[in-house]
Amino acid sequence: AELANAEAWWYKPEYIINELNINSVITTPCHEEILPINAWTTQRPYTLKGYAYSGGGKKVSRVEVTLDGGETW
């Protein structure tokens, strides 16, 4: 980060946000929200909500989510 700031990378066209890697945010469930896990909830789908931005006008084709630290997706 120090080199990026020293060389003003964030002001160069090749590093502006529309050319960075995909950015995404999950808005539901909320941060630190606890989801109950029981026989009823495991039989029903849970809808995650949020957004994904690819930059450069490119389409986001899929979003992968893990609930176990990356063991499964």
Automatic annotation (TrEMBL):
Keyword Metal-binding among record annotations: yes
Swiss-Prot/TrEMBL cofactor(s): Mo-molybdopterin
Ranges of residues in domain Moybdenum cofactor oxidoreductase dimerisation: 14-73
Keywords: Metal-binding, Molybdenum, Oxidoreductase
Gene Ontology biological-process entries: sulfur compound metabolic process
Membrane-spanning residues: none
Alphabetical list of InterPro entries matching this protein: Ig_E-set, MoCF_OxRdtse_dimer, Mopterin_OxRdtase_euk
Molecular functions (GO terms): heme binding; molybdenum ion binding; molybdopterin cofactor binding; sulfite oxidase activity
Pfam families: Mo-co_dimer (PF03404)
SUPFAM superfamilies membership: E set domains (SSF81296)
Name the UniProt record assigns to this protein: Nitrate reductase
Gene field: NIA
